[in-house]
Specification:
heterodimer; A: alpha+beta; BirA Bifunctional Protein, domain 2; 9-stranded mixed beta sheet; 14 strands; B: alpha/beta; D-Maltodextrin-Binding Protein, domain 2; 2 domains; 5-stranded mixed beta sheet; 31% helix; elongated
């Protein structure tokens, strides 16, 4: 770089700007995904960019939420996710709508991220929520829609890793774990660290069967047969067995629908425990080291807004989809068509000609030089 | 494409080599200066020990070997399916013999190579802390008055003793771990689980 740039051209960490080809690529991805959402008869919802901070009061996102004081002294926040907003709207503005409601969104969320490579503060999410529908049917529908999005984007080798939080919480029902131990346990299960799980549980006085079952969650991952193994390993726990049964029903339906080869089971997937209540899934694909998106069932959230409804949803991160497609060499990029130049000294005449070409559907670059002939 | 394994050329290298040889998994031979070595169907990356979790978290490497101390400091989102058993050490708080205990101080100044983990350790216990980040020879800091105490790894405790330090508290146990990228674990399931099983049998 030569010389010093003007002070005002600096960018704050965490923001990005897309130009031309990049912007076009992102639009194409969004169009492809939205077409799938519309195809499954979901209705678009464009929620506000900010709302009362209380709406977003999720434990995991609290530290990442940009909040600020409104002029009237109320605490407001820039949306750090869509799901809480949609739940609020479903319980308020759409309170009279019959269920199930099928809603989708596409837009930016804002999250504070400490300046670290690869993390943006502004993320573009495309997702949908199925509110008030019966369990396994809605779960299967959501996962099938996620699958179609990946197919229609042309992603190679994608895998949906499915778990069920009812397994973990079912095993812990009755074991009175203090919040700090629960946190450490969840973190060790998530890391698939059997020795770590054992170490956390050592001081809790939980029954051996429960400890062994929690340890087994770190290895209950793989093909469908994992669910049979899980049924045996967790048979002593009624709620955990029920959760495995629910997952089995959904996996059975998805397999019958031809998606079997894209499914993986992961009963150690316990992220978002303060939020998800049932099925959870993550989308992975070769070429990207982290998930492209994911979702799950969150039956507790709508009650916060006074309209208890079961709910399930998922979202794809546009930034991640774009990166993945680029790494796989499958970007949806198209270059802009060539433009016709509208040139001439007579401003009025050239403009008239340009408008005619536009009406005929041409891409026109207006280059009149404005000098009267 | 072959699986990529990130290793550090630091203190865990000999243990890693012994384990791979015992498990019958190919390992790059001899002292090479190359940073990427392909051998017997695996691609090895040689990086700095603190960077191993980063390479694995971002998926540049599918697997890696890192000490639990480094994982605690990096806070990376990776799977840790195997405790490999070698490279055992303890992360401890140590101070000069006969020095006042840190529990009575209002703010403790701590020298360490592990700033994040150190800050979290003291703050969780309700102690205000000032962390002085050093890249090495941490034991010198209390001797020269740069810090009240240190947080560092000890194996035998000899270096501590030779510098007039003693252990005040234990922060964590550490040993070498096999770490795996979350996407690779699912998207390259068969190769990854074969490696986990092979290494798991060798270190059992």
């Amino acid at each position: 770089m030569n010389g010093l740039a003007h002070k005002l051209v600096q960018v704050p960490p965490g923001v990005q700007c897309f130009v031309g080809e990049e912007a076009r690529r992102r639009r194409r991805i969004e169009e492809a995904v939205v077409r799938v959402f519309e195809g499954w008869d979901y209705e678009e919802i464009i929620p506000p960019l900010f709302d009362y901070a209380d709406v977003f009061a999720s434990e995991t996102l609290a530290a990442k939420t940009y909040s600020f004081l409104g002029r009237d002294g109320s605490l407001l926040a820039l949306r750090p996710d869509f799901t809480a907003l949609l739940a609020k709207i479903a319980a308020g503005r759409l309170a009279d709508r019959p269920t199930p409601m099928r809603l989708y969104y596409s837009g930016e969320v804002l999250r504070y991220e400490p300046p670290k490579a690869g993390r943006q503060s502004e993320l573009y999410q495309m997702g949908l929520e199925h509110l008030g529908g019966p369990g396994p049917q809605a779960d299967a529908e959501i996962v099938a829609i996620a699958a179609e999005c990946l197919e229609s984007l042309g992603v190679n080798g994608w895998v949906l890793a499915l778990g069920h939080l009812g397994v973990f919480s079912g095993l812990l029902a009755g074991a009175a774990l203090d919040p700090a131990s629960l946190d450490r346990l969840r973190e060790r299960v998530e890391a698939k660290d059997p020795a770590g799980v054992r170490q956390v549980m050592r001081t809790t006085g939980a029954p051996v069967a429960v400890v062994e079952a929690l340890v087994s969650l770190t290895t209950l991952a793989g093909d469908r047969e994992v669910l049979d193994r899980a049924r045996q390993a967790l048979a002593f726990s009624e709620p955990a067995t029920r959760a495995v049964g629910e997952l089995q029903e959904v996996v059975g339906a998805l397999t019958a629908a031809g998606l079997g080869s894209h499914l993986a089971i992961d009963l150690g997937e316990v992220r978002g425990l303060d939020y998800y209540t049932g099925l959870v899934f993550r989308v992975f694909a070769p070429g990207l080291g982290f998930e492209v998106g994911g979702g799950g069932r969150y039956d507790g959230l709508l009650a916060r807004f006074g309209r208890p409804l079961p709910a399930v949803g998922f979202m794809l991160g546009l930034d991640r989809v774009d990166l993945l497609l680029e790494r796989q060499g499958r970007s949806l990029a198209v270059s802009a068509p060539r433009a016709e130049a509208a040139r001439g000294g007579d401003l009025g005449a050239t403009l008239r000609w340009a408008r005619e070409r536009r009406r005929a559907g041409s891409r026109v670059r207006f280059e009149a030089d404005g000098r009267t002939p | 494409m072959s699986l990529t394994v990130a290793l550090s050329k630091g203190k865990l290298l000999s243990g890693a080599e012994a384990l791979f040889r015992k498990a019958g998994v190919p390992f790059p031979a001899g002292d090479t200066r190359r940073l990427v070595v392909e051998t017997g169907g695996l691609r090895f990356l040689f990086v700095k020990d603190l960077d191993v979790p980063t390479y694995v978290e971002y998926g540049v490497a599918d697997c890696g070997i890192a000490g639990r101390d480094v994982l605690l400091e990096a806070g990376s989102d990776v799977y840790e399916p195997l405790d490999l058993g070698f490279g055992r050490c303890r992360l401890v708080v140590a101070r000069l013999r006969h020095a006042r205990g840190t529990e009575s101080a209002s703010t403790v100044r701590v020298a360490t190579k592990y700033p994040k983990l150190t800050a979290a350790y003291f703050l969780e216990r309700g102690v205000s802390v000032e962390v002085v980040k050093l890249a090495g020879s941490v034991e010198l800091a209390p001797v020269l008055g740069l810090a009240d105490c240190i947080v560092d790894v000890v194996e035998t405790g000899r270096t501590l003793a030779e510098n007039g330090l003693e252990i005040e508290a234990e922060v964590a146990d550490s040993s070498a771990r096999l770490i795996v990228n979350r996407a690779s674990y699912h998207a390259r399931r068969q190769e990854v689980s074969r490696l986990i099983e092979t290494l798991g049998r060798a270190c059992a």
